[in-house]
Please model this.
Amino acid sequence: MKKIIFSVLLAVTFIMSLNVSKSQAQESLYKRLGGYDAIAAVVDDFVPRLVTDQMLSKYFVGASDESKMRIRQLLVDQICAASGGPCVYIGRTMKQSHKGLGISEAEWNSAAGHLVASLKKFNVPEKEMNDLVAIVVSLKGDIVEK
Model:
């Protein structure tokens, strides 16, 4: 269960990091990313990358398909909400979600690499990718423990 929670929290952290003030851009990051469907497509590519990664798969052991779908939806909602979209994120904070999991720097880097790969797969423009990644990196201290 802790492994599932870790995965959800990692995703949620990523999503919460998407907040961009309107003074930084004319349009919200949500709109610049392409809206709900574009975010969902990236998440639909990102989650399987996490689940099948040798280093990260341990956090998904025993997770049912339904549990993985919940993780997916929490990620979509978190990114949507954090980027200025109309969604409501109902998950816990990244600190609460990842506490005690002992997530390492290497695991963080692996997950971040998968996120970037998913964003590149969908040709997310460099500025939007950088804005999103900057938000995610700001949450690293709440996720990495060792």
The helical segments are 2-16, 29-33, 35-52, 65-82, 94-98, 105-121, 126-137, 140-143. The chain has one domain: 2-140. The chain has eight helices and no strands.
